[in-house]
Specification:
Blueprint (H helix, E strand, L loop, with lengths): L3 H18 L3 H6 L3 H16 L6 H30 L3 H12 L4 H27 L12 H48 L11 H24 L8 H11 L9 H11 L3 E2 L2 E3 L2 E3 L3 E2 L9 H28 L1
Antiparallel strand pairs: 1-4, 2-3
Length: 323
């Protein structure tokens, strides 16, 4: 394991590499993305160990085993890669480049900004198609405001899951921490559903993902609230909405960045949503605020995303000098 100052330098380099390079399509058209490899491993274990004829207890045990195997493999790979790349300045730069692959600043901005572009180029129909790439709800049920609010909610939640959390675990535990976080987060998205097939089998992945996101989600909320003036909002108001509404969300973590975004933009977010034929009747975050969001509000959310990522980078850069 690297010393603290070396790990923080790797964090700063990873943030910089991701901001500058992101996920180049040319590279990932030729080679499988690490997250895709994680997904393949999860699918293989799902097919092998998630037996329909087993009892709920047996499937939960199999899910615990699956999660444990994934964590052990990714922790081991992280340790091996750290050892192979070494702690020289060049080795740290290489580790930063590897880590940047699993951080989603640039790709998150690109995905959300495509919704804005789609409104301009293809109207509501185009925006529905664009937002369907980043949210699970039925886009055909969404009007302009619904599409805009969905994009903003995705921006907030994925800032926590895709940016703050991987950087946090990289800073705390190096490449092993980053790899473990990403495989658990990927497993949660694939098998952590409350459905007949995954209610028991995905229990361990979902609970571990909740645990790993506890601190990052709250840090993400703080970062968003602090940069609220960038979008014409109030830091104090954003913190007020976080304190009041974060716990109202069905997720123990997603409510924190989403309520911070709602307060910063003076918008009501979340609330009742439809996923296929299933209606999720959640309370609103920042209830009573404006609901008629549009593409201009998505741009404001993107400005907050840039500012929050920049603030996060500045904090870690400062830590590099003092750790």
């Amino acid at each position: 394991m690297l010393a603290g100052s070396e790990t923080i330098l790797i964090v700063v380099l990873a943030i910089a590499f991701d901001g500058l390079i992101g996920d180049p399509d040319l590279l990932w058209r030729r080679f499988p993305h690490p997250v895709a490899l994680m997904g393949s491993a999860i699918n293989m274990l799902d097919r092998a160990l998630n037996r329909e004829q087993w009892s709920a207890a047996q499937r939960k045990a199999a899910g615990c085993l699956t999660t444990g195997v994934l964590v052990a493999i990714c922790a081991g790979l992280g340790l091996l890669l750290e050892a192979a790349l070494g702690s020289t300045l060049l080795g740290q730069a290489a580790q930063g480049l590897v880590a940047s692959i699993l951080i989603a600043q640039r790709s998150l901005y690109q995905h959300v900004s495509r919704v804005v572009s789609a409104f301009t180029d293809g109207g509501l129909a185009g925006a529905r198609r664009a937002v369907s790439m980043i949210v699970g709800r039925d886009p055909e049920q969404l009007d302009t405001s619904g599409v805009s609010r969905a994009a903003i909610e995705s921006c907030a939640e994925n800032f926590s899951d895709g940016v703050v959390a991987p950087v946090f675990w990289l800073a705390l535990l190096g490449l092993p921490g980053l790899f473990v976080y990403k495989v658990v987060n990927t497993a949660d998205s694939m098998i952590g559903h409350r459905s007949p097939r995954y209610e028991s089998f995905g229990w361990a992945a979902a609970r571990l993902d909740d645990l790993l996101n506890l601190a990052p989600a709250r840090l993400a909320a703080i970062l968003i609230a602090l940069v609220a003036p960038i979008a014409g909002g109030s830091t104090a108001q954003a913190f007020k909405i976080v304190w009041r509404d974060a716990s109202k969300h069905r997720s123990p973590n997603a409510g924190w960045p989403e309520s911070a975004m709602a307060g910063a933009l003076s918008l009501a977010l979340a609330g009742p949503r439809r996923y296929g034929d299933r209606l999720v009747d959640d309370p609103f975050l920042n209830a009573g605020a404006r609901m008629d969001a549009d593409s201009a509000d998505i741009r404001r959310a993107l400005n907050l995303l840039i500012a929050a990522c920049s603030l996060e980078a500045a904090i870690y850069a400062a830590l590099a000098f003092v750790v």
